[in-house]
């Protein structure tokens, strides 16, 4: 019982990452009709926003400590971040400690700019090109973004810890009257889950209850008619692209403490996010979110020892197996609209 | 000739000439010169050019004609490879039975996968093929280790039974051969300061590729090919007129899978080793990129795309700082350092960066792929530059089956 | 055009063997060397070309870059440039800084991408195009096994880089291949006594294992040696290579009565699984009245860096560490550190040593012929290369030397100072019989000179 509860929590957590990435992807892919192979790279750029912000905060003065020796026997270089110099060691250290949540403020403008530049500079010329060309150009872009990060940060993962206030685990067991310590869950993962829900709700509210969102939704359904009504739909699509990039980026920022970011993390998520979007159904935001959580939870359950004993290796293929079953039983995924990307 | 019209005959003759002369064409720089780095005329890379050419030609039959974008084609390549190495381990090191086995096994696998996946179209089809390929990869890497050798893959071993190789020396490791001729047998031709290597394995693979290419032309020009194009342009209309498209699409899917299997079998014939990463989604993605890069729906495009990507992977990745120093060594020191600093991020470990940039440049400036580039150059040379520019615009996209 | 180089093809051009004919059928371009024995890519003229095949893209690119630095350093030292590094502390004095057998050492590089296909393609181009007489490098066992088999077929020597699976010198061993790096069995054997001292003999271990060959051999090795000292193995679970989030595998550990978690993971897998395990508070748990402990059988400093503070206090084993105080290690760290500004990794060390050992073997054999080199390396005993007295065993081409047991440092003084050496396990404790069950099923075969 508690095992199932824990795996459900794991699934929700994993699912929130999938859902966030898929949400952004489906805004671009399911609605603008652009097959964006660079979406994983946007997620990765988000995570590296957190890394970069941390590096900026820890820019340091170097002093030599003759007492200690470095590996060559020279005096050891001691680094003191400027921010600790300026704001005092305690406040400075606290700000550095909170660098990941603070990096959200840094990532939003950065990701919006990246999104705008990408759309205006590249993607807008590809709306009418075949999907094959879109794949080639966005894949090329993904490689370029990835290699730039590799050039500056190397290939190894870079530790980006959460604030120490979130270091422990929350005891669910005690909350619902079970023995303490049986169902514990790390605070940061709960934060990630809550954050994902917040972003998802915000995107839905924005699209559903604002005039802007209404126009965009109308544009998705029938771009030409909206254009004929004298509405500049292109501009709104540009903004949508920036929002999608921003959602992917935020998913990346908050993910950084869960797994240390590396330059190819985007590629690891790329295929998976396409599967999630398609299982959810093309053109459906709700479908993407639903599929994200569904696949996350199923993946967690498939990793349980009890399941693996019966079906060895099922954890390796569960996502793809589910995708096949869903697509064969429901022709347009869970909630897909007719006629989107079907030919 | 060979039931081809004159245009196709000309193309086919050019391709024959190119493949036969490849050891010379690809080695334009003299041995030992600084530019010898760019020579690609050594057996392994030439073999890869033609083998991945076959893979891409097969992929293009499916994608270029019907528009069905399979994102799991590497699975057939991998299955073909495994079938072929098991043939060599169990029966004989002769590559002919191995190649037949790879084509048959991958054809059967494609029949099963195609039967399921072709029930959907568009992106749903792509994801279904991707799912099958990723499952094949994941299982081959882990659970199926007894059959596939897992991470380390399969190689020929001295202990292999090879029941048909009666004369084989006891305890010797088998070498892939064609009725006794070693795949690695080479003839070296020194001409002045050039050195050309004529490799038997390459010519065998090239011969197979020419057959594959010829079959592909015939399919393009056949009523069957016409039907497949009809599927691409409007499947609904076909359905309404009472034509069931499934047998056609399934047939071409299986043919395409057999091409991939053949490529996999040849890979093993040239280099007797199989690893599961051959089936990873990036490998499937690579053949998609090769086809689009070269020009989807064109006859020769996929081969060009395959050559381009393999060239980048094997040549540009080998340029290191020492090579750069040798190139720019004649320049004044400051200029030399500056040039090396500029070029270095794009070569060696940065070869992916160059590849990514090339992808973007090609697709931005040459809609229609490398073939379009070739046509434009041809157009300028014959003074028809203006014309080819106009029809190289929005219209000449992947949907036009132009050669 | 300063780069003119006489290689095997240079000989051809000089035309001595060609006579009037233009063509000569060969298999893998075997050549008659000066001493009359034919072998692949026999160096002619004043240079010899070595092939450095390391991962330059993909997750192990940083490790590959470090390997390449070490190789470049080794080439400098062999050619008599720089401070000579470990050449001065090496017990064999055959090398004198004039290249190998008087030939200047040149090298070519390639990208393995940590994929066996790509690694073989790259190695083949070095052999076929560049005339490399030895291939070395790599950062995974899959690649090592694949390239080793290729070198056996082609008739060149393969000096393995970082490869830890038992299979490389076990069931997939080859006469032309040599491994200096330690292996899964040695990790298990070295760790067990230290773990016994630190955590007692009454422990329940839970294994998470990467689902591929290296994971299997490491799990088996650690399991067997810890069970031999009385530990109980509660469960072993295979995790997919592609896994990034290990939460689904960590939470069942919370549910079990295990009090030790063994992470048979390497690279990105290790970083993520360790980070996740610490996130879930495993380090703070008390099970059966004992502190919960985590063990990482194969440590790499480069990778440990990725896990940040999570490595603190966690035991593991490593082939070599820059903080070793022996003469050889010190000389190497000084030489490497002065050139590049940071200390070398264990991957860099093993690659440097492999290049040196190869050069030395050629000098002692008096020939580049792979079979002569094999003979010179088999049963070779040496010292002064950072691991104490070492034997290259003839039966399986595996080096036997001391193994380091390390622990994540509590108070690192710099970004390189992540591990502290807990114990140097003497070589006797990690030595095993060549036909040990964990290594069974392979045979070296005979050396292949190619032509």
Describe this structure in words.
The complex is a heterotrimer of chains A (343), B (403) and C (451). Chain A is 68% helix and 7% strand. Chain A is mainly alpha-helical and 343 residues long. Chain A has one domain (2-329). In chain A, the strands form two sheets. In chain A, strands 1-2 form a two-stranded antiparallel sheet. The longest helix of chain A has 30 residues, at 2-31. Chain B has helices at 6-25, 43-66, 74-90, 95-117, 122-141, 145-148, 200-221, 223-233, 235-240, 246-270, 281-294, 301-314, 321-328, 333-343, 351-365, 369-381, 385-391; strands spanning 154-155, 177-178, 181-182, 185-191, 194-199, 273-274. In chain B, the strands form three sheets. In chain B, strands 1-6 form a two-stranded antiparallel ribbon. Chain B is globular. Mean pLDDT of chain B is 88; it is low at 385-403. By secondary structure, chain C is α/β, with parallel strands linked by helices. Chain C folds into two domains: 8-182 and 323-396, Response regulator (Rossmann fold), CATH 3.40.50.2300; 185-318 and 416-430, Rossmann fold (3-Layer(aba) Sandwich), CATH 3.40.50. Chain C contains 13 helices and 20 strands. Chain C has helices at residues 8-14, 61-78, 116-128, 141-154, 184-199, 213-228, 247-255, 267-279, 301-307, 327-340, 346-365, 370-377, 427-430; strands spanning 24-27, 30-32, 38-40, 47-54, 104-111, 134-137, 157-160, 177-179, 204-210, 232-239, 260-264, 286-287, 290-291, 293-298, 315-318, 380-382, 390-392, 399-400, 403-408, 419-425. In chain C, the strands form five sheets. Chain C has a seven-stranded mixed β-sheet with strand order 10-9-11-14-15-19-20, sandwiched between helices. A five-stranded parallel β-sheet of chain C has the order 5-4-6-7-8, sandwiched between helices. Chain C has a three-stranded antiparallel β-sheet with strand order 16-17-18, with no helix packed on it. In chain C, helix 2 (61-78) packs parallel to helix 11. The chains are: A mainly alpha (343), B mainly alpha (403), C alpha/beta (451). The interface between B and C is large, with 56 and 65 residues.
């Amino acid at each position: 019982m508690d095992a199932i509860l824990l795996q459900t929590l794991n699934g929700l957590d994993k699912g929130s990452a999938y859902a966030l990435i898929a949400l952004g992807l489906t805004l671009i892919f399911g609605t603008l009709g652009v097959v964006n192979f660079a979406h994983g790279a946007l997620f990765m750029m988000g995570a590296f926003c957190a890394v970069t912000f941390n590096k900026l905060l820890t820019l340091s003065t170097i002093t030599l400590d003759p007492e200690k020796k470095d590996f060559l026997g020279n005096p050891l270089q001691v680094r003191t971040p400027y921010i600790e110099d300026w704001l005092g060691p305690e406040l400075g250290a606290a700000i550095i400690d909170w660098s990941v949540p603070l990096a959200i403020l840094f990532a939003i403008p950065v990701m919006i700019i990246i999104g705008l530049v990408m759309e205006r500079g590249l993607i807008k010329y590809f709306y009418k090109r075949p999907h094959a060309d879109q794949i080639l150009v966005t894949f090329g872009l993904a490689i370029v973004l990835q290699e730039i990060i590799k050039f500056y940060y190397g290939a190894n993962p870079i530790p980006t810890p959460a604030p120490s206030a979130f270091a422990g685990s929350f005891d669910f067991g005690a909350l619902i009257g079970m023995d303490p310590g049986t169902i514990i869950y790390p605070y940061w993962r709960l934060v990630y889950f809550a954050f994902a829900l917040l972003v998802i709700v915000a995107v839905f509210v924005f699209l559903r209850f604002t005039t802007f969102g209404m126009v965009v939704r109308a544009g998705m359904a029938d771009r030409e008619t909206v254009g004929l009504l004298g509405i500049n739909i292109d501009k709104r699509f540009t903004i949508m692209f920036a929002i999608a990039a921003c959602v992917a980026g935020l998913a990346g920022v908050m993910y950084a403490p869960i797994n240390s970011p590396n330059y190819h993390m985007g590629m690891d998520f790329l295929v998976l996010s396409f599967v999630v979007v398609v299982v959810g159904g093309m053109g459906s935001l709700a479908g993407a979110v639903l599929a994200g959580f569904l696949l996350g939870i199923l993946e967690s359950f498939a990793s349980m020892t009890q399941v693996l004993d019966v079906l060895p290796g099922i954890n390796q293929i569960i996502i793809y197996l589910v995708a096949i079953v869903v697509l064969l039983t429901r022709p347009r995924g869970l909630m897909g609209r007719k006629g989107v990307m079907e030919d | 000739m060979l039931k081809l019209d004159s245009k196709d005959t000309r193309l086919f003759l050019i391709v024959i000439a190119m493949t036969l002369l490849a050891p010379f064409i690809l080695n334009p720089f003299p041995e030992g010169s600084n530019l010898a780095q760019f020579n690609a005329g050594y057996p392994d890379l030439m073999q890869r050019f033609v083998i991945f050419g076959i893979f891409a030609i097969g992929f293009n039959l499916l994608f270029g004609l019907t528009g069905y974008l399979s994102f799991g084609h590497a699975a057939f390549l991998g299955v073909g490879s495994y079938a072929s190495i098991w043939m060599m381990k169990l029966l004989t090191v002769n590559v002919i039975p191995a190649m037949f086995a790879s084509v048959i096994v991958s054809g059967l696998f494609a029949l099963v996968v195609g039967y399921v996946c072709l029930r959907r179209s568009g992106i749903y089809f792509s994801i279904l093929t991707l799912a099958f390929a990723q499952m094949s990869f994941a299982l081959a890497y882990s659970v199926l280790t007894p059959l596939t050798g897992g991470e380390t893959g399969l190689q020929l071993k001295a202990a292999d039974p090879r029941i048909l190789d009666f004369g084989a020396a006891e305890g010797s490791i088998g070498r892939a051969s064609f009725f006794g001729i070693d795949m690695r047998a080479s003839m070296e031709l020194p001409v002045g300061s050039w050195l050309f290597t004529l490799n038997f394995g390459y010519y065998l693979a090239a011969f197979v590729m020419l057959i594959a290419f010829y079959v592909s032309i015939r399919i393009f020009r056949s009523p069957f090919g016409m039907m497949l194009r009809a599927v691409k342009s409007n499947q609904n209309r076909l359905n309404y007129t009472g034509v069931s498209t499934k047998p056609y699409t399934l047939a071409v899917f299986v043919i395409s899978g057999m091409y991939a299997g053949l490529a996999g079998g040849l890979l093993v014939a040239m280099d007797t080793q199989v690893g599961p990463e051959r089936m990873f989604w990036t490998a499937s993605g690579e053949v998609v990129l090769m086809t689009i890069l070269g020009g989807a729906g064109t006859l020769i495009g996929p081969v060009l795309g395959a050559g381009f990507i393999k060239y980048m992977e094997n040549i540009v990745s080998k340029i290191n700082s020492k090579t750069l120093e040798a190139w720019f060594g004649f320049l004044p020191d400051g200029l030399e350092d500056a040039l090396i600093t500029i070029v270095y991020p794009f070569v060696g470990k940065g070869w992916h960066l160059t590849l990514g940039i090339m992808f973007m440049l090609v697709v931005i400036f040459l809609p229609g792929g490398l073939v379009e580039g070739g046509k434009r150059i041809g157009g300028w040379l014959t003074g028809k530059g203006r014309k080819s520019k106009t029809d190289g615009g929005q219209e000449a996209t992947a949907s036009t089956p132009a050669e | 055009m300063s780069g003119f180089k006489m290689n095997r093809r240079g000989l051809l051009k000089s035309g001595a063997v060609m006579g009037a004919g233009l063509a000569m059928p060969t298999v893998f371009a075997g050549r008659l060397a000066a001493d009359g024995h034919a072998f692949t890519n026999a160096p002619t003229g004043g240079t010899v070309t070595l092939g450095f095949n390391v991962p330059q893209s993909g997750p192990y690119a940083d490790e590959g870059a470090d390997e390449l630095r070490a190789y470049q350093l080794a080439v400098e030292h062999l050619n008599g440039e720089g401070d000579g590094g470990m050449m001065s502390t090496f017990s064999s004095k055959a090398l004198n800084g004039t290249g190998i057998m008087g030939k200047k050492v040149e090298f070519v590089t390639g990208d393995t991408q940590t994929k066996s296909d790509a690694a073989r393609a790259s190695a083949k181009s070095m052999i076929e195009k560049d005339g490399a007489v030895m291939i070395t490098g790599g950062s995974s066992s899959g690649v090592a096994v694949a390239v080793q088999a290729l070198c056996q077929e082609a008739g060149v020597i393969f000096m393995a880089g970082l490869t830890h699976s038992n299979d490389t010198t076990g069931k997939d061993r080859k006469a032309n291949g040599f491994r200096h790096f330690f292996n899964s069995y040695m990790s298990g054997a070295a760790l067990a006594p230290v773990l016994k001292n630190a955590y007692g003999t009454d422990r329940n271990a839970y294994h998470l294992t990467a689902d591929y060959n290296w994971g299997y051999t490491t799990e088996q090795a650690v399991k067997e040696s810890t069970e031999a000292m009385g530990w109980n193995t509660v469960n072993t679970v295979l995790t997919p290579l592609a896994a990034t989030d290990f939460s689904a595998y960590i939470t069942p550990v919370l549910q079990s009565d295990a009090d030790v978690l063994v992470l048979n993971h390497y690279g990105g897998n290790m970083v993520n699984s360790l980070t996740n395990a610490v996130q879930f508070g495993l380090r703070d748990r008390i099970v059966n009245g004992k502190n919960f402990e985590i063990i990482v059988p194969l440590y790499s400093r480069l990778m440990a860096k990725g896990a940040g503070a999570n490595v603190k206090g966690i035991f593991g084993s490593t082939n070599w560490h820059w903080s070793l105080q022996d003469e050889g290690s010190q000389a190497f760290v000084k030489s490497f550190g002065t050139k590049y500004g940071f200390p070398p990794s264990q991957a860099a060390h093993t690659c440097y040593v492999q290049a040196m050992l190869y050069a030395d073997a050629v000098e002692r054999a008096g020939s580049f012929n792979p079979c002569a080199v094999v003979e010179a390396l088999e049963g070779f005993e040496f010292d002064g290369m950072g691991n104490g007295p070492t034997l290259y065993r003839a039966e399986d081409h595996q080096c036997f030397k001391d193994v380091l047991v390390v622990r994540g440092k509590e108070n690192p003084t710099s970004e390189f100072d992540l591990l502290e050496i807990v114990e140097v396990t003497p070589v006797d404790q990690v030595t095993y019989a060549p036909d040990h069950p964990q290594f069974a099923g392979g045979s070296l075969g005979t050396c292949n000179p190619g032509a």
